[in-house]
Amino acid sequence: MIFLFLTLIINLIIMDNQDWTDVKIGGGNVSYDPNKKNNTLPQINKQNLPGTKLLNQLDSEEIYIPPKIDKNVSQDIQSKRNQCKLTQKELANAFNIPTNIINNIESGKSTQNKGLINKINKFMDNKIKKMNQS
Description:
Shape: elongated
Oligomer: single chain
Structural class: mainly alpha
């Protein structure tokens, strides 16, 4: 017990003789000087970011217009839907999407959404197979 007391007193004496200085974290003045020339942000490596090719195309101030659905694809979807005896509303409800998306796809006004078009084609192909089997 006395040993602990003595080590505590020795530590206090040693700590008083240290030449430590107080350190303040934060609290510095941050200012923005528009006349200062070194206000540039670090450059980000954009080489592997998603959409880099599209951004490079747009850097030349071109207007990017996404391609529309091919007429053959839209007519194919419409004919398959008619074979299945489905309305546009019923098909839209099957995919939980608004009816106007199906309407735009069939009229060729919609932009290419290959994932949705493939899902619609698979769905209707399966329906047609089931109708032919029974």
